[in-house]
Write a structure and sequence with these properties.
This protein has 1 helix and 8 strands. The chain is mainly β.
């Protein structure tokens, strides 16, 4: 839903095969706003349509959630993500990477 003061998603889901991206919430403009993206076996190559123009090719899969919120007028990302078999422009980077900035940890399995 779009209004001059907000852009809100309610149960917006994108699916393809076993990949699912769920989006809920409002694009943050004030402290009470937050936007949450939940990834379930999401293939990073699904982002090619957005990254191709920058000559970026991502492959692998992602699971978990990413929250964009506003804290004291500063955009803030909070995540709990696991990325598997990450490739960047045809170069293998990592087997598994867990990113959880709530606990301020990044675990990597090469």
């Amino acid at each position: 839903t779009y209004t001059p003061n907000s852009f809100t998603f309610k149960n917006f889901n994108v699916t393809g095969g076993h990949s699912v991206l769920k989006v809920n919430g409002s694009v943050p403009k004030m402290d009470s706003d937050s936007l949450v993206a939940q990834f379930v076996n999401w293939e990073l190559s699904n982002f090619d349509i957005l990254t191709r123009q920058f000559s970026i090719d991502l492959n692998g899969s992602i699971n978990g959630d990413l929250q964009l919120t506003m804290i004291k007028d500063n955009p803030t990302l909070v995540s709990n993500l696991t990325i598997n078999d990450l490739w960047f422009n045809n170069e293998f980077l990592v087997k598994e990477k867990e990113i959880d900035n709530r606990s301020k940890s990044i675990d990597e399995n090469v």
